[in-house]
Design brief:
The protein contains 18 helices and 12 strands. It is α/β, with parallel strands linked by helices.
């Protein structure tokens, strides 16, 4: 028996299916409102389109993108060809008016708000009576943290750094060629471009020179550059192999799967999804490239466990690298009819690893790409993840992430809705990026207690891309250290070199930011890798401090706002920041301001006028209906 399709809203006093029961009528109804219910009405039409086949879906969305001028035509064509089939798969599986469709509208169009978290207690053993160990006072280890290198192997010195795409410094057109353009890119990179190999090699040389006694290096993901409309399996494979071949020169190093480290971008199908599209090839490449760095046992786990692995370092530290892409809202494979609570069993695997480490008396560093308090993390999985952190807060020394491209941190609390120094239990260290698209190239060096593996301090090194001598060869220098900059300003001061940067320390720093605006604005500049002189006041400051106190994404104060515009035309601008990567999202979210006319024109151009008269029956179900 086919279940009746139900859409719980009314754009007027009547149901959309009693008065607007054709594609044309629904589009007219959508034009009348920019709300969550309007978005779900639009999904009805997109679902009808998806059921006609991937080719039709791709062609229509591509036509919208080109007609609206959302992106260059090659970007429209390439991005939708890669990501469109995944979105069409989602829509065919989706029941409109459910949690899945609400989350889809939230992510793609910004027209729905987060639903309540589904209550779930992650299965774990009882928490023992145990506290964080005190500092040992031993000679600190040094550990390097790099992230988001985004190396562009197609970067061409002398090509234009002024282009209409999200990354430049490639000869996309004849006018962009070296010797032709008026905006030639230098040898070591530009703010409008991802990292050239020369900058990557400069980074590794700087690490060798500035941190010769490092114990090891961690890399929190994202090798591949941002030309997401062009990437394919072959290019990503080549990028990963090239980057890790160079990174091996650093010696002992441990990596993480980034959201760009697959093709299409963000494409990580969980085990439960029925699809012929797979990311196993990426896990196989990473396993092969990491084998000499993390060992054969851990490398085999990478291959069999969706990129995640656990390994004991020579120093006796348990490093757990987890694929956070299974909790990332731009991984569109996750939008199944019933969304998986624990995609590919990664939460269960993490619990098992932590329980084993606890039993063995090991200290743990937990690494991932996306910080779990960020706006990109599903609220549900972020909360479940935080349950695990709370349970093992005496075993985990710290968490390490990248993805945001900024120099940041997040504090976890046993009372997340009411942060305080006494309830701060864990810190996530979020490293700034190498890529110049979001600031000056940067890396961190941690001072680490040799026994407890707690973070005692860290220093950020950078190279000033605006320096007049930069293109002659980057000069890497110290930007700041945490204790030198902030330790004496806190009450009580934290200046002892052997003292841990505890969760309470980081909470108290956020309080200092609230009370001392000069200190906050200086931090805000460093957060942006000392590239811009922009300030952050009022709601901006309040929101940013809120995010520092949010290890659960439901508490990060990020407001969901419309990405689709039903009523007016707006200019689309390229911004450089957190590496979301999806090109399909801004394309779908930028339908033209004349209502749904752009979408309607694209439908007619591809499907013919008769498609607008297609009747959507009231029993339209997830099982599928083909007009």
């Amino acid at each position: 028996m086919r279940a009746a399709f139900f859409l719980p809203f009314a754009l007027t006093e009547a149901s959309i299916y009693t008065k607007r029961d054709t594609v044309s009528d629904i589009l007219t109804a959508v034009e009348d409102a920019a709300t969550c219910t309007a978005c779900e009405a639009l999904l009805v039409v997109l679902k009808v389109l998806a059921h006609t086949g991937n080719d039709n879906f791709v062609n229509v969305i591509t036509e919208i993108c080109i007609l609206a001028g959302v992106e260059d035509s090659d970007v429209c064509t390439g991005a939708i060809a890669l990501e469109g089939p995944i979105l069409a798969h989602d829509l065919r599986q989706m029941t409109i008016g459910t949690r899945t469709s609400t989350l889809f509208c939230l992510t793609v169009f910004g027209l729905c708000q987060w639903p309540e978290i589904e209550a779930y207690n992650v299965p774990m053993t009882t928490k023992p009576v145990k506290s964080r160990p005190s500092p040992s006072g031993g000679k600190p280890l040094q550990v390097v943290h790099i992230s988001d290198i985004h190396v562009d192997l197609s970067y061409k010195t002398g090509s234009s750094y002024s282009c209409t795409k999200n990354i430049c410094c490639r000869p996309y057109t004849a006018a962009d060629e070296p010797g032709v353009t008026e905006f030639p890119a230098g040898e070591y990179g530009n703010h409008a471009c991802d990292s050239p190999v020369t900058l990557e090699e400069s980074l590794y040389s700087a690490i060798e020179d500035l941190v010769p006694n490092r114990s090891f290096t961690i890399f929190t993901g994202d090798v591949v550059e941002g030309a997401v409309w062009l990437v394919n399996d072959t290019e990503v494979t080549n990028d990963l192999e090239d980057a890790y071949t160079r990174m091996k020169g650093l010696g002992e190093a441990y990596g993480v799967v980034g959201n760009h480290d697959a093709a299409p971008v963000n494409s990580f199908p969980p085990a439960s999804v029925d699809t012929t599209i797979s990311t196993q090839w990426a896990y196989d490449v990473l396993s092969s490239e990491w084998k000499s760095m993390i060992g054969s046992t851990a490398a085999a786990e990478v291959e069999s466990n969706y990129g995640s692995y656990s390994v004991l370092t020579s120093e006796g530290l348990r490093l757990i690298s987890v694929n956070t892409n299974f909790w990332y809202k731009q991984n569109f494979w996750l939008y199944e009819a019933t969304m998986d609570r624990d995609p590919s069993g990664q939460l269960a695997w993490l619990v098992a690893e932590l329980e084993a480490a606890e039993t063995a008396g090991e200290r743990v560093w937990l690494m991932g790409h996306m910080p779990m308090g960020s706006s990109g993390a599903f609220h549900d999985q972020s909360q479940y993840f935080d349950q695990i952190i709370q349970r093992f807060d005496a075993t985990i020394a710290a968490l390490f992430f990248g993805h945001t491209h900024q120099d940041e941190f997040e504090v976890a609390y046993s009372t997340p809705a009411a942060p305080s120094p006494n309830t701060a239990v864990m810190v996530s260290y979020i490293a700034p990026a190498l890529t110049p698209t979001s600031g000056n190239p940067t890396f961190r060096v941690y001072d680490i207690d040799p026994v407890t593996f707690a973070v005692l301090d860290y220093t950020v090194y950078y190279t000033n891309i605006s320096s007049p001598t930069y293109q002659s060869g980057p000069t890497w220098e110290k930007l700041y250290s945490v204790k030198e900059t902030y330790g004496a300003l806190l009450s009580p001061p934290v200046t002892d070199s052997s003292a841990e940067l505890t969760p309470s320390f980081w909470h108290n720093l956020t309080v200092l930011f609230e009370n001392n605006d000069a200190v906050y604005q200086a931090w805000y500049a460093r957060r942006g890798r000392d590239y811009s002189d922009a300030t952050c006041t009022g709601d901006c400051k309040t929101s940013s401090i809120c995010q520092l106190r949010a290890s659960q994404s439901q508490y990060n104060c990020v407001t969901v706002s419309p990405g689709i515009n039903f009523k007016r035309d707006e200019l689309t601008t390229h911004t450089h920041g957190e590496c979301g990567g999806s090109a399909a999202v801004p394309i779908l979210a930028s339908f033209t301001g004349s209502g749904m006319s752009g979408f309607q024109n694209a439908l007619v151009a591809t499907m013919g006028d008769s498609f607008l008269n297609t009747t959507v029956p009231s029993n339209y179900t997830v099982a599928g209906w083909n007009p």
